[in-house]
Amino acid sequence: DAGVIQSPRHEVTEMGQEVTLRCKPISGHDYLFWYRQTMMRGLELLIYFNNNVPIDDSGMPEDRFSAKMPNASFSTLKIQPSEPRDSAVYFCASSLRSGHYNSPLHFGNGTRLTVT
Amino acid sequence: AQKITQTQPGMFVQEKEAVTLDCTYDTSDPSYGLFWYKQPSSGEMIFLIYQGSYDQQNATEGRYSLNFQKARKSANLVISASQLGDSAMYFCAMITNDYKLSFGAGTTVTVRA
Fold it and tell me: pLDDT category, A62, cuts 50, 70, 90?
């Protein structure tokens, strides 16, 4: 059974460029989460979806960040324009929650983003 | 807002010994779930163990056990018989009725041979 798949694994881009991170959740999972991990701020929840609908985007740092989930098997996180302070590891995670707390989040391997 | 506190930034443990990682949490919700994740140097996040706020028994998964003290709002992870492969960062996390999983700052464990 395939886990959460993220692409690319590594992304190096110049300041001002658009960056798109991709995620394929585990089939059948109804929740999808985007997290960012940095040394300074740890793991931060950016946004999460339930049944493809964005539920809470209060963690999105600013308007340069946007996320979509056009269908149950695909989500994107876009940064436009990118800045050096966006450099981090971005994780996508999915879970089968269905109203219960005890379903763990399954994480992808992350995308390491470096903005120069 | 909920808050997770892990006060130990780093710990050393001798191989085959047990180690306890501290986690305290703060929430006003009566229903919540507590998770522990492992992040090895390769970077992936691995789910270890779960404890529900209404669970009467402490959770156990192989060499991992969770010492849940609800009145003290603590959910410490115990790793028994440490192995070299246990060297990693460990994160405590909590979910409440908003379905958002919030993480602590993490504890780095280094197992010595």
Answer: confident
Kindly report the CA angle at B9 between B4 and B14, in degrees rounded to 5?
Answer: 120
The CA distance from B5 to the nearest CA of chain A, in Å, is 12
Q: Tens digit of pLDDT for each residue in B86-100? A: 999 999 999 988 788
Whether the CB of B45 is below 8 Å from some CB of chain A: the reply is yes
Set of chain A residues whose Cβ sits within 8 Å of the Cβ of B31: 101
pLDDT in tens, A75-104: 999 999 999 999 999 999 999 875 567 788
Nearest-Cα residue of chain A relative to residue B101: A45
Cβ pair A102:B50 closer than 8 A: yes
Answer yes or no: are the C-beta atoms of B49 and B66 closer than 8 Å.
Answer: yes
Distances (CA, A) of B75 to A33, B4, B22: 24, 10, 7
